[in-house]
Amino acid sequence: MTEDVSSIITSGQDQMQKAINHLEAELIKIRAGKANPQMIDSIMVDYYGSQMPINQVANISVMDARTLSIQPWEKNMLQPIERAIIAANIGINPQNDGVLIRLFLPPLTEERRKELVKKCQAEGEHSKVAIRNIRRDAIENIKKLQKNGLSEDAAKDAENEMQQVTDKFISVIEKHLTTKEKEIMSV
What we know:
With 187 residues, the chain is of the alpha+beta class. It is 59% helix and 15% strand. The chain has helices spanning 3-29, 78-88, 110-147, 152-185, and strands at 44-47, 50-53, 58-64, 67-72, 94-96, 101-104.
């Protein structure tokens, strides 16, 4: 196999790994009944006129399985953090005691669990689409090489290898989704 073909396949693998990493990050944000500081990492807080991620203006820790505590670096940041959490509409009301903010995660109902599983499935589908698009682009690049002198057999072998890589990454997505679904549905 030529150097060009192997670089196309390697590039495709790297891009597919990034799609998997993105899926993992998104699945962490979907809560499964347990408190996890990464659930609120994407919330932006107004910090003296500029938007900052909540984890850069406060210490976020897990108090117990259903409680997060948020302790701002500066006391005057309590109100902006509280407003940002409410505005983020994550389904949790913050409890401000003047020193720190507590987030009590309510137990998940069966209906809510099913909604979260659907959300996970949607994220998984986005990742699958991204991986298929990467495969399509790689195969188009291989076909361009074929027009520029790559043998037909080498092009077919490269396309088959790209398909095997795609299948491997799709199965990784399925494993992640199955694991997350079990985590959400377990009471």
